UniProtKB/TrEMBL annotation, chain A:
A GO molecular function held by the record: ditrans,polycis-polyprenyl diphosphate synthase [(2E,6E)-farnesyl diphosphate specific] activity
GO biological process: polyprenol biosynthetic process
This protein's UniProt keywords: Transferase
Cited NCBIfam families: uppS
GO cellular-component term (any): endoplasmic reticulum
Protein name: Alkyl transferase
UniProt cross-references to PANTHER family, sorted A to Z: DEHYDRODOLICHYL DIPHOSPHATE SYNTHASE COMPLEX SUBUNIT DHDDS, DEHYDRODOLICHYL DIPHOSPHATE SYNTHASE FAMILY MEMBER
InterPro entries, alphabetized: UPP_synth-like (IPR001441), UPP_synth-like_CS (IPR018520), UPP_synth-like_sf (IPR036424)
Enzyme class (EC, first level): transferase
UniProtKB/TrEMBL annotation, chain B:
Keywords tagged on the record: Transferase
NCBIfam families: uppS
Entry's family note: Belongs to the UPP synthase family.
Name of the protein described by the UniProt record: Alkyl transferase
Matches recorded under PANTHER family: ALKYL TRANSFERASE, DEHYDRODOLICHYL DIPHOSPHATE SYNTHASE FAMILY MEMBER
Domain of life of the native organism: Eukaryota
Example of a GO MF term: ditrans,polycis-polyprenyl diphosphate synthase [(2E,6E)-farnesyl diphosphate specific] activity
Single GO biological process annotation from the record: polyprenol biosynthetic process
CDD domains recorded: Cis_IPPS
EC number of the protein: 2.5.1.-
Transferase in keyword set: yes
Length: 303, 255
């Protein structure tokens, strides 16, 4: 973020003191930018992840520790999300996926669910109205999940945002809401079964030997078939999955896609997750990379 | 490579046999080690899954492997020999221990899950016999995952359901989570306890490698740097202690 640069002489006038503060802030911000770019350049000598997934845990605890309202915790969490998105973009990460809302979360207190839905609708509409962030990173936004479970205003806003960014070719930002990996897998199984039934009906219509066609089609269902019907079709598997606030579980997030993902559980709560935590995450990934690659290659050979 | 293959093919799950049940007179007293380490017996995991990773690195560290193995051809041959060796080892282990498992006081029931078409004939036979011999035991279930993959397991379940759809026994839109879960191999073996409460992976590798993919949706994951041959009772108690310190919410909130 570039600040303003003005030259001035120090005096007791509060206005001038404030300008001093702005100058200092501006200079510090520029220095921060420069250092950040240097650090990113150094990091880039090693293998960089193409896809990072985040489980944004800890907003409510953050609010509790700071004695602010729960809703405010989620808002700070949203700011942390946008900041992380921009840092990832600077680092050349092409795909970001976040676990924004689980289907299980509907079981929470209705007032919390309501305030979360309102926040999401507000933020989606903000992104639709003010496209500077999206345009800067040429961002394509996906919503992965069972959108039918959302109330109409949120669903319509989400669909509108997806449609308006569908042609963008930069960073791919996938928001999982409302999402469960097990639901995603069941949905893929439904679609594969329906697809096979349709293929069989077409074959049967043109071929009298229905029994033989049945056997042939049935035995061909493969990992690739289910892959094609996942919400994440076309997107590479995450290289890193980061769950903040120290919890070590996936909570039904991307179970199908995270076979070789490096799982990390840093202690900071999501609103506290910052650039240095992201750098540390990538350093850990780079350390584990040789072994991850070996496992991936071995798995590919055995398929 | 051995540890990598081992982690993909040999996974053991175990139900602890010393869980206290409220209101049951026949409750078993917890071992002293549990009491001494401050582990609460009333909240032990019912199903523990283990990825025993790190055997090769352990051997390498002790100079038990030949240092030279860089040629691609030699590595490929080593891999095949390694697979054959592992299959033989699994078969021997089952055969040597099944009599002990069979004895009533041990009450251990053996299940072998995975893709049987990839097992040698002799292992298929040994596995079937072990499962048959221990069929009536119910104190502790030992599941050995051999040539297992979570994705493969789901594809098998999908094929079974597609078969039913094509036989007009079921419509695609009727398929839900419990139906799909019911088609998984672990469901046949462990029923309602299919989902591990705790998944332990040794040797510092922080990933799931396709193990119990569906079943570990809400499992607590415990990663330790200890290599598998060094993972003993003390390390297991540490894992249990870590498990008990966690707050499991299943997507909801505690009050």
């Amino acid at each position: 973020m570039a600040g303003s640069r003005t030259s001035c002489s120090p005096s007791a006038d509060p206005k001038v003191e404030k300008t001093d503060e702005v100058v200092t802030t501006g200079v510090l911000a520029s220095l921060q930018n420069f250092l950040r770019k240097c650090l990113i350049a150094v990091l880039s000598y090693g293998p960089m992840p193409k896809h990072i997934a985040f489980i944004m845990d800890g907003n409510r605890r953050y609010a509790k520790f700071r004695s602010i309202q729960q809703g405010a915790g989620h808002r700070v969490g949203f700011s942390a999300l946008i900041a992380s998105l921009m840092y990832c973009y600077e680092m050349g990460v092409k795909y970001i996926t976040v676990y924004a809302f689980s289907i299980d979360n509907f079981k929470r207190d209705p007032s919390e669910v309501q305030s979360l839905m309102e926040l999401m609708e507000e933020k989606i509409n903000e992104l639709l109205d003010n496209r500077s962030v999206i345009n800067k990173i040429n961002c394509k936004i996906n919503f992965w999940g069972n959108l039918d479970l959302l109330c109409e205003p949120v669903r319509l806003a989400a669909q509108k945002l997806m449609a308006s960014t569908a042609g963008n070719t930069g960073l791919v930002f996938s928001v999982c809401m409302p999402y469960n990996s097990t639901s995603e897998i069941v949905n893929a199984v439904n679609e594969v079964c329906a697809e096979r039934r349709e293929m069989l009906q077409i074959e049967h219509a043109g071929d009298c030997n229905g029994y033989a066609a049945n056997n042939g089609v049935h035995s061909e269902i493969s990992v690739a078939d289910l892959d094609r019907h996942m919400y994440s079709a076309g997107c590479p598997d995450p290289d890193i999955v980061i769950r903040t606030s120290g919890e070590t579980r996936l909570s039904n997030f991307l179970l199908w896609q995270t076979t070789f993902s490096h799982l990390q559980n840093p202690d900071p709560l999501w609103p506290e997750f910052s650039f240095r935590h992201l750098v540390w995450a990538i350093l850990q990934y780079q350390r584990a990379y040789p072994y991850l690659e070996q496992s991936r290659n071995l798995a590919k050979k055995q398929m | 490579m051995l540890s990598n293959f081992l982690s993909r093919t040999i996974h053991r799950t175990r139900l602890p046999d010393y869980r206290l049940q409220a209101g049951t007179d026949a409750a078993v007293a917890p071992p002293d080690a549990l009491a001494q380490s401050g582990i609460r017996p009333e909240s032990l995991p019912r199903h523990v899954a283990v990825v025993p990773d790190g055997n090769r690195r352990w051997a390498q560290a002790r100079g038990l492997l030949t240092p030279d193995g860089h040629e691609v051809g030699r590595r490929a041959l080593e891999h095949t020999m390694e697979v054959d060796y592992l299959m033989g080892m699994i078969e021997r282990t089952i055969r040597e221990n099944v009599d002990e498992y069979e004895r009533r006081e041990n009450g251990i029931r053996v299940h072998v899950i995975g893709d049987p078409s990839r097992w040698p004939e002799s292992l298929q036979k040994t596995a079937r016999e072990a499962e048959e011999k221990t069929r009536n035991n119910s104190k502790l279930h030992l599941m050995l995952a051999t040539c297992y993959s979570g994705r493969w397991e789901l594809v098998q379940a999908c094929r079974a359901l597609a078969h039913k759809v094509q036989g007009n026994l079921l419509r695609p839109e009727d398929i839900d989570e419990s139906m799909l879960a019911g088609e998984l191999q672990t469901s046949a073996a462990a029923g309602e306890f299919s989902c591990p409460d705790l998944v332990i992976r040794t040797s510092g590798e922080q990933r799931l490698s396709n193990f119990l993919l569906w079943q570990s949706a809400y499992s607590e994951l415990y990663f330790t740097d200890t290599l598998w041959p060094d993972f003993g009772e003390a390390e297991y108690l540490q894992a249990l202690s870590s498990f008990q310190s966690r707050e499991r919410r299943f997507g909801q909130r505690t009050a």
